[in-house]
């Protein structure tokens, strides 16, 4: 505990000295999220993080999350320095969608608009017409479908299928998945629901179809927090990364939050859903963020210019 307190006070002091602000995702550990809150920084979903960073006057943005979030911050604010506790924190969706095969896939269907999830590399974003996050994906695809546009969607196959069903858009799907959400299992969730029959079931749309089918509410991280607060149920079962419980419990202090099981058997969680890359954002690395020289985000100039176009559309669409 002493060591943690030491890291915390060091970080508070360094943020001030370097005119820096800490921006954390809901899936990082509570001690990172609370530090962002206490230092005038921000905790939110990937779209809110992007907007907050772009608008904030600090010279340096510290992004606690995964690499695509740091790259998005840098592309939106090229004049700012963007640091991360570690650049090793990636995402299975980003890893599962390398630019060469994805670009070939797009080339094979030149009549289609390319819409990609924010969980992608700068190069994939540069190849896209639109970038979306889960909080605006359905609305953007509805808007494009109304104009009769045909779509290539990547990389998350579950989110793609969910949007397709919601909007009726004509979409070709890249076959990527999130290793965290892909682990929620139907039988185990049904058993969990039997244990808590009064509970509402909240599901992130990166989850498989049979999990989404059991949901009372499907939405992005911020939308799930809002639903936990607003639904009348006293208990909620949540199928997303357990890091979200920190802010969800703040928003709904009187509710009992239950994480959906991932182990494939049994009704309660054994190896609770927690992203291995989000977990890499630890206090110790954060306290060294200014002294190391291997954790600054740089994006190739040409790629950044191209990726800025669909990213700007993302930010503007949500306004
Ligand atoms: P949100 O856009 O809902 O924050 O999701 C990002 C993410 O990585 C989900 O796994
Ligand atoms: Fe990527 Fe899934 Fe981790 Fe989100 S939870 S960063 S989608 S691997």
From TrEMBL:
It is an enzyme of class 2 (transferase). Its EC number is 2.5.1.72. Pfam families: NadA. GO terms for biological process: 'de novo' NAD+ biosynthetic process from L-aspartate; methylation. SUPFAM superfamilies: NadA-like (SSF142754). GO terms for molecular function: 4 iron, 4 sulfur cluster binding; metal ion binding; methyltransferase activity; quinolinate synthetase A activity. The keyword Chaperone does not apply. Keywords: 4Fe-4S, Cytoplasm, Iron, Iron-sulfur, Metal-binding, Methyltransferase, Pyridine nucleotide biosynthesis, Transferase. GO terms for cellular component: cytosol. It catalyses: iminosuccinate + dihydroxyacetone phosphate = quinolinate + phosphate + 2 H2O + H(+). Its cofactor is [4Fe-4S] cluster. Coiled coil: none annotated. It is found in: Cytoplasm. Pathway: Cofactor biosynthesis; NAD(+) biosynthesis; quinolinate from iminoaspartate: step 1/1. Catalyzes the condensation of iminoaspartate with dihydroxyacetone phosphate to form quinolinate. NCBIfam families: nadA, PRK09375.1-1, PRK09375.1-2. This is Quinolinate synthase.
